[in-house]
Each structure stands twice: as structure tokens, then as C-alpha cells.
Amino acid sequence: MGFQAFYNMGAISEEEWSDFISNHPQGNIFQTPEMYRVYQATKNYEPLMTICKHDDQLVGILLAVCISQTRGPLGFFTSRIIIWGGPLVVDNDPSLTSFILESFNQAYQGMAVYGEFRNLYMSAQIRKKIFGQNGYAYLPHLNITIDLSVSEGILWRKVSPSRRRNIKKALKTGLEFIEVTTTDQVEKVYKVLKRLYKKKGLPLADASLFHAIYNILVKRDYAKMYLAGYRESIVGAVVMLTYKGRAYEWYTGSLDKSLNLRPNDFIQWKTLLAMKSEGYKLFDFGGAGRPGEPYGVRDFKNSFGGQLFESGRFRKVYAYPLWYVGVFAIKLYRMIKH
């Protein structure tokens, strides 16, 4: 085949990397050098690169991140490797995709309990065979996207009647939609999300992730952050990643004490309008759970009138004993929190 694999940024220039992602049909924010730097700047995150060349030409990129909830001896126990929107290879060539997966596995699978590829496009089905040959099981997973190229009137008519009523009520309460422009406001975003995730018994990335998003991505117009404010209080927040016409909702949430104000309906609708006004053509909800399983978040997202489809994921467990212990520990943690 003549392919070569490299595992550090020194193998290519940042300009070469950026051009490759920008020109690839499925190029996305999660495979950019800017996201590499975000991972670098985040506590308990480690970016993992796999670069493929053929005759000294860049033909493939796979950017992953190894995440753990803690450092030290317990770090590996909680470690996982997550890949959004990758790998990206020239012409989506199957042999090159297989090569980059093999190279990635050889280099990194000893670093974590499991690895998971999260697809952003509707191409998971045609990649099943390649990923399967490299030890990855296919996991059905849903997503929802909204076409922002239509008029605001059409967007509004696609929203469910009950959701439209909630939005109208929220707009009458005096809620404010605030774009984040200071580091103090980034802290407010984090506080909202931290309270929400704590209530649900879910782990949330360190605050350094959100400051890195602001300092690296927002400054490049690759991200937006918004707050929902009511009088002197912040009651909701959303973090959007924006790249190549696609607006990806990475984090969002509101505070329980404010639910009578309908902040979720408010901030979701205002974010859709903000992304449309900024010229983005597609709104990506960033996941909608597993098919066949009740999921209130999916029902909420679906009520905004988008397209529901199966994007799928691929997962490989590298250390089964730790995997089973980890699954039990997470269930126990959530039971205790609730």
C-alpha cells in the first residue's frame, strides 16, 4: 500500500493539516489543529494524533482524545478514548481507513479502557465492515439535524405546537439571550453545566475545557457560547461549535429553579436563530440517544422539527475486566446521586 503512519504534529505543518480538513467533504471541527490545542489545554485530556502519508503526501488524519476523570493510579481505570468525526481519509478509501485504524489501535489502545468513534455523518453503515475487521462493534445511535437554510417562518412552523407555546411564554418572561464575551461569563456557563451534570450524576469536563474553547475556538469564530439571563441571575447556557456551515451543539442546560420560565425552550430557539443569522446551514444536536429506548432529551430535540437519523457509533473495549467494573461503578454512582 505504501502508507506510513506518524503520531505527532511534527509530521505535518499546521497549514497542511488545516487545508486537509477544510477541503475534505466530511471535514469537521473535531479533527482540526485548533481542537488539538483545546484538548492540550484541558485538564485530564490528552490529544492523540494519527497521521497517514503516501509518497510524502498527507492522505489521512485521525484526532482522538484520551479522557480520564482523575490523575494518578486511578486515571487508567476511568480512561476512555473518544473520536468525533474521524478518521478522515482521501476519497474515503477503505484500505486507507483500515490502515489508519490499525495504526491507531497499535499506538494507543493500551492507554484506556475503551475507545469510541462517534460519527457526525450518515456514513456509519458503509464503514461497519472496516471497523468490524479492526475490532470495533457497531452501536446504533441517533442524531437530529435541522436545515437552517429555510426561512425563519418555516423553522417556526416545524416546531411542535406545545413547544411554540412554551417559547412564547419564555419570551414574555423577560429572559435575555446573552453572547459570552468575557472569561467571567465562561465561568457562569460552567457553573450552570456543573450543577446540571451533578444532578444527573454525570461526569463533566474540567472548567479548563470551556476556557480553552473560549480562548482558542471562539477567538477563531469556531465556537459560540450563550447564556440565558433572568433579572440578575443566569439560568441557562449553551456551547456551540461552528465550522464549515455546521453548528454543533456540544453542551447545553438550565437550572431547575428556573424551569417555570421555560429556559430550555427559550435558549434552544434563540440559538437556532443566532446560528441561522450567522450564516450556518445545518444545526447538529450532537446526539439523540439509542433507538428503541425512551429518552426525554430526544423528545425535546425532536420537537424542534429536525431530521432524525441513525448516525451510529463504533466501540472497542480494550480492557474488559475494568470495563465491567466501570459500568457497575457508574450505575452505582448515579443511583447514589438520585
Task: Report on the architecture of this protein.
The chain is of the alpha+beta class and 338 residues long. The protein has helices at 14-23, 33-40, 94-108, 124-133, 152-158, 161-172, 183-200, 207-217, 263-277, 296-302, 320-337; strands spanning 3-6, 45-54, 57-67, 80-84, 88-89, 114-118, 137-139, 142-147, 176-179, 223-230, 233-243, 246-254, 282-284, 307-310, 313-317. It folds into two domains: 3-141 and 312-337, Gcn5-related N-acetyltransferase (GNAT) (Aminopeptidase); 144-310, Gcn5-related N-acetyltransferase (GNAT) (Aminopeptidase, 3-Layer(aba) Sandwich), CATH 3.40.630. The protein is built from eleven helices and 15 strands. Strand 2 (45-54) and strand 3 form a beta hairpin. Helix 2 packs antiparallel against helix 8, helix 3 (94-108) crosses helix 4 (124-133) and helix 6 (161-172) packs across helix 9 (263-277).
Structural class: alpha+beta
Straight-line distance between termini: 53 Å
- The CATH superfamily of the largest domain turns out to be Gcn5-related N-acetyltransferase (GNAT)
Q: How many helix segments?
A: 11
Number of domains: 2
Rg over CA atoms: 20 Å
- Tell me about the biggest sheet? 8 strands, mixed
**What is the CATH topology of the largest domain?**
Aminopeptidase
Order of helices and strands: EHHEEEEHEHEEHHEHHEEEHEHEEH
Assign the CATH class of the largest domain. Answer: Alpha Beta
In round numbers, the mean pLDDT is 91
